[in-house]
Amino acid sequence: MTASATATLLILGADGDLTSRLLLPGLGTLLAVHDADIEVIGSGLRELGEAEWRDLVAGELESVPEPRRSRALESTRYLHADATDAAALAALLEQCAAVPIVYFALPPSVTARVCQVLEGVPTPEGMRLALEKPFGADRDSARRLNELLTRIVPERQVYRIDHFLGRATVLNVLGTRFANRLIEPVWNRHSIERVEIVYDETLGLEGRAGYYDRAGALVDMVQSHLLAVLALVAMEAIDRVDEVVLRDAIAQVLQDTAVWGGDAASASRRARYGPGEVEGRSLPAYADEPGVDPGRETETLAQLVVAIDTDRWRGVPFLLRSGKALGRSRKIARAVFRPAAPIEGLEGRPQPDWIELDLRSGEVEIGLTMNGGGDPFVLEQTTLVATQVPGALLPYGEVLKGILNDDPTLSVRGDVAEECWRIVEPVLAAWREGRVPLEEYPAGSDGPQDWSKIEKHPHEDAIR
User: Fold this and answer.
1) Rounded to the nearest 10 degrees, how much is the dihedral formed by the CA atoms of 80, 81, 83, 85?
2) How far apart are CA 345 and CA 334, in angstroms?
3) 148-151 contacts at long range (C-beta below 8 A, 24 or more positions apart)
4) What is d(CA 58, CA 48) in angstroms, rounded to the nearest whole number?
5) Which CATH number fits domain 165-463: 3.30.230.10, 3.30.360.10, 2.40.50.140, 2.20.25.160?
6) Closest by CA position to 133, among listed 342, 355, 399, 336
7) What is the model's pLDDT at position 463?
8) How far apart are CA 210 and CA 393, in angstroms?
9) Among 40, 191, 463, 464, which residue carries the largest CB count within 10 Å?
10) Residue 306 in contact with residue 315, Cβ under 8 Å?
């Protein structure tokens, strides 16, 4: 990125949590390492004074060197406006001094209404649209949204944001798989028995009932983030990483993915947390959290097993799991290998070998069976650990860098958004029909006692 890469970041919903918690901090890391001339305009329904907005932005740009920090602060401003009003939206676009990047930091239903209005107002050449997940509420609505967006701008100028694809730790999957000959030759059904992609959190609802109680763990995490990780883990080998090759590979593997055995009821489980204690904090039952409608039966823990119908993966189960208010934080992608044939004269096999990527730290661990240190004729498992230097940018910094550079490589393409809905829709239908019971687990536990557990390996406690 060079100083000539000028744009206006127009944030709709700038008075909300996403802007202050994720978007502005990401922008701060971007400007700290890249010299970019960016005008930042915030807009929302809440009245914010100029000093309040400038202080909010300044607080996230503290690490940005001069003169770019002063340049960004001098140009930033907040405009009180209702973006669902055509005249107000047109006026906001007219305020943009450079090519506008319209960032929808809004609830999905409001984003859709703004896009309908945007279709009818004059728009600047080169305008880009950045949307937060979920993209639609089901496959049909995602398709309609995609059609609407591409009537406003070309598909290449639509950035569907999945910040997991901006994590250097997640992108480490690409290097781990394709940049060496140790992994890729065995990365298939002949060597791998199962794959587990897990995103368990100790956090509870944290005041997000307005969104979460309508989404739940399946839509919030599995339908988007975990399927994105699955695509990177399972896609076919590529010879370069760019907006065409990488996104084509992601789309292809998701097209080949479906619920295990074609039976959504037997391939999925759901639960919600009851009262308990997590890391010294007492949590009420999810159903008693402020803003929650217990009658919705929203799950806070979802598990889904899918199959990928390709020569590489046919017959290998992929377990996707995500939950809240659990007793331990686990954010991993893990491949468990098939056991090797036994060798007469060598005793013991502690557990299957495995390779695991920590989605938080990027750390790669390999559980490797070797001769024992005490008795060379007794096998034991050793854990090899490779650490990763943290990326310079926060995930939203990587996302914004791609948008400012007019590079959609790390954004979700329209057909991929539709495929993700196709995969989970049978599960949502089975849950609505009551074919999968809503179980309960105490906050601070590992989930319902009879659920499949991720096998514990020797160094697990040490690395958490």
Assistant:
1) 180
2) 30
3) 148/112, 148/115, 148/116, 148/119, 149/115, 149/414, 150/414, 151/119
4) 15
5) 3.30.360.10
6) 399
7) 28
8) 29
9) 40
10) no
Torsion of CA 212, 218, 219, 220, to 10 degrees: 50
Give the pLDDT band (50/70/90) at residue 5.
Answer: very low
| 273 within 8 A of 286, measured Cβ to Cβ | yes
Q: Residue 230's pLDDT band (boundaries 50, 70, 90)?
A: very high
How far is residue 188's CA from residue 195's CA, in Å, rounded to a whole number?
A: 11
Which tokens sit at 248? 């084509």
Buried b (16+ CB within 10 A) or exposed e, 96-130: bebbbbbbbbbebeebbebbebbeebebeeebbbb
pLDDT per position as a tens digit, 408-450:
999 999 999 999 999 999 999 999 999 999 999 999 999 998 8
* Nearest-angstrom CA–CA distance, 389 and 277: 33
> Could you tell me the CA-to-CA distances from 311 to 307, 316, 420 in Å, in that order?
12, 11, 21
Question: In terms of Cα–Cα distance, which of 237, 236, 240 is closest to 256?
Answer: 236
Domain boundaries, the chain: 7-132, 165-463
Mean pLDDT along residues 322-333: 96
pLDDT tens sequence across 67-81: 989 999 999 999 999
pLDDT of residue 350: 65
Domains 7-132 and 165-463 share a fold: no
Query: Catalytic residues, which ones?
Result: 225
Taking a C-beta distance cutoff of 8 angstroms, is the pair 195, 306 a contact? no
Task: List Cα–Cα distances, 129 to 51, 101, 121, 442, 450, in angstroms.
Answer: 28, 6, 15, 41, 45
Neighbours of 412 (CB within 10 A): 24
Q: Per residue in 147-203, pLDDT tens?
A: 999 999 999 999 999 988 877 777 788 888 888 888 999 999 999 999 999 999 999
pTM for this entry: 0.91
